[in-house]
UniProtKB/TrEMBL annotation:
Organism (species): Glossina brevipalpis
InterPro entries recorded: 4NH2But_aminotransferase_euk (IPR004631), Aminotrans_3 (IPR005814), PyrdxlP-dep_Trfase (IPR015424), PyrdxlP-dep_Trfase_major (IPR015421), PyrdxlP-dep_Trfase_small (IPR015422)
Cofactor dependence: pyridoxal 5'-phosphate
The EC number(s) this enzyme carries: 2.6.1.19, 2.6.1.22
Annotated SUPFAM superfamilies: PLP-dependent transferases (SSF53383)
Flavoprotein found in the keyword field: no
NCBIfam families assigned to the protein according to its UniProt record, in alphabetical order: GABAtrns_euk
Stated name of the protein: (S)-3-amino-2-methylpropionate transaminase
Tree of life domain: Eukaryota
Record's keyword terms, sorted: Aminotransferase, Pyridoxal phosphate, Transferase
Similarity comment: family membership: Belongs to the class-III pyridoxal-phosphate-dependent aminotransferase family.
Molecular functions (GO terms): (S)-3-amino-2-methylpropionate transaminase activity; 4-aminobutyrate:2-oxoglutarate transaminase activity; pyridoxal phosphate binding
Record flagged with keyword Transferase: yes
Example GO biological process: gamma-aminobutyric acid catabolic process
Length: 489
């Protein structure tokens, strides 16, 4: 019996090791190379036609050969090799096929975590508490000693909003307060007092996701929202700065003041109309909305307002978190006297979720819950990503390559001021704006033909979202290709 079991085990291990031998990482090419006459090339077009027969695939730019993409370079199915400074909408932290991440699944136990996906809220694996403790210790924002894991950015925000409402109502009822019969009955009919008329304040231009609650706080493009019923929640203006910042200090300060005054006005107005604001939801840099920045002072004052009205502050770090701004969390640039109560994450961290204070933990079970509550295989990746960030000093790397890219962009802005303006950003989380939306789109298209894959955001902004492994040499290639495009435009 023992021998037979041993044999089965041995075969499984051999099969697993045969499987993992398949993993390879190609060296990065020296520079991009484009072989098809246009992008998408013929093979991409063919695949797009096929996919379009089964689902709406209009947004597909091109199809990718993920097996042979490597580091900062993506290879499409037509053999075009592009320097990727968009990285799957800012969600690949270490570039393609990083050997250390491939190595994670060169381990039979980890492969088992991949295929035996648990309902984490009910049946977590034996290693789960230690893994969660490790993540909290390594990257948990100071003072936020609880974590709720989820799947994506939208569901991180969606569920964090529920925690805000739960905590608000608990304060209102008092610690000993219980749900009333009327509350339990009315919530089943979507009516107050059980489903109370509470609200969250968000900002024009923000993007917090596409599920119904998150969408009520998203205001970047109408196409995300149209035809969907939504909630009467307050929306304040986010600062709209003039660049360069050094030359526009006074007017930008005025802009901060105006927006902050509006935040307070809205909180008071919604209190009066019996739809009190339970929390403020904000991105440290409005990303999808056009890389709109606000000063540390703006965020400090915003936090003061949240404390004054005893409401929560949620910082949505889904796009900014993970080191791309030169700090692990972007809000660390703001010198806040205390951390925001909730920090949501996803994208580069692979796992979705949020860090929060104990106060936001529901007393009752199953109020913030779903089947999977995250994914253990993603936490394995996240652990290794954090190790690599530390060992390879990638935050320092981001600062160095970001400096090269930003100073090059500022120089191009000087030379081509009739085309580009408003270079801005932190670390490699950088952006430039163009005179018109059409010009921005043309430049992105031409850059791609020269082998640089960048993305757009807002109306007329080009955003850079490279991996944390982006180096000065990559920044120089981007600048060289962008210079060519601007020269020809
Ligand atoms: C700031 C921010 N919040 C939330 C989301 C939604 O994340 P997901 O697309 O994973 O649902 C995004 C996505 O781009 C984002 O940038």
């Amino acid at each position: 019996m023992h021998v037979a079991l041993g044999l089965i085990k041995f075969r499984a291990v051999t099969r697993a090791s045969r499987y993992v031998k398949y993993f390879t990482t190609l060296p990065e090419p020296k520079e991009p190379s484009i072989s098809s006459a246009s992008i998408p090339g013929p093979k991409s077009l063919e695949l797009k036609k096929k996919l379009n027969g089964m689902q709406l695939a209009e947004m597909v730019n091109f199809f990718v050969d993920y097996e042979s993409s490597t580091g900062n370079y993506l290879r499409d199915v037509d053999g075009n090799v592009m320097l990727d400074v968009y990285m799957q909408i800012s969600s690949i932290p270490l570039g393609y096929n990083h050997p250390r991440l491939l190595e994670v699944f060169n381990n039979a136990n980890n492969v088992k975590a991949l295929i035996n996906r648990p309902a984490l809220g009910f049946f977590p694996g034996k290693d789960w508490p230690v893994r969660i403790e490790n993540i909290l210790k390594q990257i948990g924002p100071k003072g936020l000693n609880n974590i709720t894991t989820m799947m994506c950015g939208s569901c991180a925000n969606e569920n964090a909003y529920k925690n805000i409402f739960i905590s608000y109502m608990r304060k209102k009822r008092g610690e000993e307060g219980n749900f009333t019969e009327e509350e339990m009955d009315s919530c089943m009919k979507n009516r107050p007092p059980g489903a109370p008329n509470l609200s969250l304040l968000s900002f024009h231009g923000s993007f917090h996701g596409r599920t119904m609650g998150a969408l009520a706080t998203t205001h970047s493009k109408y196409i995300h929202k149209i035809d969907f019923p939504s909630l009467d929640w307050p929306i304040a203006c986010f600062p709209n700065y003039k660049y360069p910042l050094e030359e526009n200090e006074r007017s930008n300060k005025e802009e901060d003041k105006k927006c902050l005054a509006q935040v307070e006005e809205l909180i008071e107005a919604y209190e009066k109309k019996d739809r009190p604001v339970a929390g403020i939801v904000v991105e440290p840099i409005q990303s999808e909305g056009g890389d709109n920045h606000a000063s540390p002072e703006f965020f400090q004052q915003l936090q003061c307002i949240s404390k004054k009205y005893d409401i929560s502050l949620l910082m949505d770090e889904v796009q900014t978190g993970g080191g791309c701004t030169g700090k692990f969390w972007c809000y660390e640039h703001f010198d806040l006297p205390s951390p925001p109560e909730i920090v949501t994450f996803s994208k580069k961290l692979q796992l979705g979720g949020y860090f929060h204070t104990l106060e936001f933990r529901p007393r009752e079970t199953l109020r913030v819950f779903n089947t999977w509550m995250g994914d253990p295989s993603k936490i394995l990746l996240l652990e290794e990503i954090i190790n690599v960030i530390k060992e390879d000093k990638l935050l320092e790397q981001v600062k160095k390559s970001g400096k090269v890219l930003k100073s090059g962009l500022l120089q191009l802005e000087k030379e081509y001021s009739h085309l580009v303006n408003s270079t801005r950003g932190r670390g490699t989380f950088l952006a430039i704006s163009f005179e018109t939306p059409e010009l921005r789109d043309t430049v992105i298209g031409k850059l791609r033909k020269l082998g640089v894959h960048a993305g757009g955001c807002g109306k007329q902004t080009l955003r850079f979202r490279p991996a944390l492994t982006f180096e000065e040499k990559h920044a120089n290639i981007v600048l060289d290709r962008l210079r060519k495009v601007l020269y020809e435009t």
